[in-house]
């Protein structure tokens, strides 16, 4: 171990007693076939919890004045949103992070249980779901996506907590007192960057967007909330990537940046444009 890291005794991740599975049911035999074992993983629970909590909060938000949709429409939209998140997240991971592998084995794209989801892809999938649903129901897509952006950090935060429980997507080596030795990451203590992301991309953005929604007139300026969410996520994630280990199959790319950082740059630009243009956009009038 190098002198930089030798002075501290880091926490061994295995000492936390965390497991990827919430619970596991044993195999059963049905008509001569063995089925199982069946497991519920924390990562799956994070997706389910993020969608359900986001749904509940969205239903509460549309009870306020200026809402772009009704509660029944929110209930209908959740199916579209779920499909958009899953399809976009998976395709984003395939295209942005592991295209060569899936070109060689295209059927592996459908093996969602093996992991591999991209937030950037999930965000694009959600945006596509919003636009398609709005057009199908003659609603204003930009106003809907403002509301959706306010609840999206819930799922992002829960997902990063699940990454930590799984002991995956760890950070770069560190000499900080809170460094953790992750299984499969070598002997050096590393930044628990999953927790940084849960706090920044999840809790911090949720607080900022909630304050804007509930304490200001931001929801009457279409594009403002989603602009803050998009630029905010891009800036937070770009900074945290300096503490996160790059994806092994990609490493560092142009300007010694990671793929995550390169994908964040257009998010920041788009978010700032939405914020700037929202100032001159017509204010929403009460129904």
List the helices and strands and how they pair.
Layout: H1 3-6, E1 11-12, E2 21-25, E3 28-30, E4 33-35, E5 38-41, H2 42-61, H3 71-97, H4 99-104, H5 119-136, H6 141-166, E6 180-181, H7 193-215, H8 224-240, H9 259-278
Parallel strand pairs: 1-6
Antiparallel strand pairs: 2-5, 3-4
Helix pairs in contact: 2-3, 2-6, 3-5, 5-6, 6-7, 6-8, 7-8, 8-9
Question: How would you explain this protein's 3D organization?
Answer:
- The protein is mainly alpha-helical.
- The chain contains 9 helices and 6 strands, in the order αβββββαααααβααα.
- The chain has helices at 3-6, 42-61, 71-97, 99-104, 119-136, 141-166, 193-215, 224-240, 259-278, and strands at residues 11-12, 21-25, 28-30, 33-35, 38-41, 180-181.
- The strands form 3 sheets. A two-stranded parallel ribbon has the order 1-6. It has a two-stranded antiparallel sheet with strand order 2-5. It has a two-stranded antiparallel ribbon with strand order 3-4.
- Strand 3 and strand 4 (33-35) form a beta hairpin.
- Helix 2 (42-61) packs antiparallel against helix 3 (71-97) and helix 6 runs parallel beside helix 8.
- The relative contact order is 0.12.
- The mean pLDDT is 88.
